[in-house]
Automatic annotation (TrEMBL):
This is Multiple-sugar transport system permease YteP. InterPro entries: MetI-like, MetI-like_sf, UgpAE/MalFG_permease. Belongs to the binding-protein-dependent transport system permease family. Keywords: Cell membrane, Membrane, Transmembrane, Transmembrane helix, Transport. It comes from the Bacteria. It is found in: Cell membrane. Residues 89-304 form the ABC transmembrane type-1 domain.
Amino acid sequence: MTNVIRSAPPAARRSPRQRLLARLWRHRGLYLMLLPGLLWFALFRYWPLWNAQIAFKDFQPVQGVLHSPWVGLEHFRAFFSSFYFSQLMTNTLVISFAKLLIGLPPAIILAIAIHESTRKGLARVTQTVTYLPHFLSWVIVFGILLAMLSPGSGLLNKGLVAAGGDPVSFLTDPGAFRAVVIFSDIWKETGWSAILFLAALIGISPSLYEAAEVDGATRWQRIRHISLPGMLDVIVLVTLLRLGHILDAGFYQIYVLYSLPVYSVADVIDTWVYRQGIQNFQFSLATAVGLFKGLIGLLMIVIANRVARRFAGQGLY
């Protein structure tokens, strides 16, 4: 037995700490590439959590985070009991769910159309043209919308007037503003979202399509029984991630597009927090609402993941 122990490899006699260090050194190149991302998350995601305690304090910049007096849940109660709470929640949820439910199918359809196209040149041009709007800032998009929807000189309103109708002020009309927000977001982001679904389609084995074609399956049947099931993992993942940000209705978009006449249908949590926290210097109240958003997002991910695992057989974790 002494000979057996002496002949054991050196790695087997290492402590867990030594084995861990050996693995880290062996894959040091990968960890070095991972380091910038970890530092970014540590500095901009985890370190700010220390300052999130001002949500429970009457924060005074002169006194600092540590010496500001505690007020407990006072800021949360103030937000929940305010006149704006129901209006902000309604606007945020309506816009967010509309973007999710109306915006997801066009991205899936576009990905399938590009994948099924027999003209690869046309497919590449279509993909490029559709995802280019993603790189435009909302300020530029606002200029485009103004040229299209302006009541005086907008192209769409000129068409309405030529047809005998009255011009519509889409950007200041409460009845039309939400539609502008939702469909401008779909126009801007559909091509970019389709890239994820297109990657899932490319990962499906071509032999499945060949076998289905030999068996006489039509193109619609191949899409229904091969393409859509092959995309299911990505569809579930994208849906869960978006549900986690369901209270992020799109701050930059709405802040650029909205104005005082449409506050009642366009003011969302993020824009209200910006006005209260930055413009009115109510930092503690803004932080409390931010924590509330984070808890709701976490709860939505957990619930949606359980529902997805139960009915779709898979989830985010």
